[in-house]
């Protein structure tokens, strides 16, 4: 049983303490904590108060805030991107998977494989599952959500012509997540996603531009795929997807959550 299943916090409307949940490295071990201001506390589980102080965010090395078994992604899920690409309006969500080996963290390096000429950023809102989700009704989706974090659905554009997207989406470091799981999001359909490349804004859109909302996506996915605590649903990327090259700093900022920052480098 995962840490999330053992220590599941109640749905947001019933919690006494809404939290920013992090994972950090301490003596070579992955630990779970709660951020209060700029300080990380031990995570006590359930609805308890944050525990003892561990250290400041500046002192600790943050890991990806969850360790998913399954990462399900929605493609072409923003109206602006559909218009930008001239694609037909989708009749149902278009799904693909990213492999867990792709997970990396805040301030980690995104590695461009030597064979790849065009590596692309895709800023996205990530949904972190909090309890086993199977055949979830769309109107009860939030009952199964632990919280939200920032994601970069890194893509090797060159490899899209494989006929499927496994290689293009799942190379090591192709799924940065962070900086933490924000549990205090009242309306995930009204968040601003801003992606910056070298400080220049390249994506700027509200999650209200999604074609299929989080409830619709979770209902569709969990008809066939059971999601477990700690699993992740990526909800699609707005218009403005483009290339990044070694030396670039890419930031995905989502209002109410925070900023995920990574540097691009060639894989040695």
From TrEMBL:
Pfam families: FAA_hydrolase, Rv2993c-like_N. Residues 70-264 form the Fumarylacetoacetase-like C-terminal domain. Its EC number is 3.7.-.-. GO terms for molecular function: hydrolase activity. Keywords: Hydrolase, Metal-binding. SUPFAM superfamilies: FAH. Residues 19-65 form the Rv2993c-like N-terminal domain. It is an enzyme of class 3 (hydrolase). Belongs to the FAH family. PANTHER family: FUMARYLACETOACETATE HYDROLASE DOMAIN-CONTAINING PROTEIN 2A, FUMARYLACETOACETATE HYDROLASE DOMAIN-CONTAINING PROTEIN 2A-RELATED. This is Fumarylacetoacetate hydrolase family protein. It comes from Nocardia jiangxiensis.
């Amino acid at each position: 049983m995962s840490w999330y299943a053992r220590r599941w916090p109640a749905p947001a409307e019933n919690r006494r303490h809404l939290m920013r949940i992090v994972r950090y490295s301490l003596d070579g071990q992955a630990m779970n904590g709660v951020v209060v201001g700029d300080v990380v506390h031990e995570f006590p589980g359930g609805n308890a108060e944050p525990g003892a102080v561990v250290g400041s965010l500046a002192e600790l090395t943050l890991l990806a805030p969850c360790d998913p078994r399954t990462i399900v992604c929605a493609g072409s899920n923003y109206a602006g991107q559909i218009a930008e690409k001239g694609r037909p309006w989708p009749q149902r969500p278009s799904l693909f998977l990213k492999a867990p080996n792709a997970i990396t963290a805040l301030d980690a390096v995104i590695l461009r494989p030597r064979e790849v000429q065009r590596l692309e950023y895709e800023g996205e809102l990530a949904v972190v599952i909090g309890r086993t989700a199977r055949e979830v009704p769309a109107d009860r989706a939030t009952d199964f959500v632990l919280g939200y974090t920032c994601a970069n659905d890194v893509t090797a554009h060159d490899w899209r012509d494989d006929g499927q997207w496994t290689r293009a989406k799942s190379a090591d470091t192709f799924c940065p997540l962070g900086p933490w799981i924000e549990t205090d999001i009242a309306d995930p359909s009204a968040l601003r996603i801003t992606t910056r490349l070298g400080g220049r804004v390249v994506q700027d859109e509200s999650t209200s531009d999604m074609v299929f909302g989080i409830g619709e996506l979770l209902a569709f996915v969990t008809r066939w795929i059971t999601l477990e605590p700690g699993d992740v649903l990526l909800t699609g990327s707005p218009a403005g997807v483009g290339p990044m090259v070694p030396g670039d700093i890419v930031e995905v900022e989502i209002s109410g959550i925070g900023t995920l920052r990574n540097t691009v480098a060639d894989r040695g």
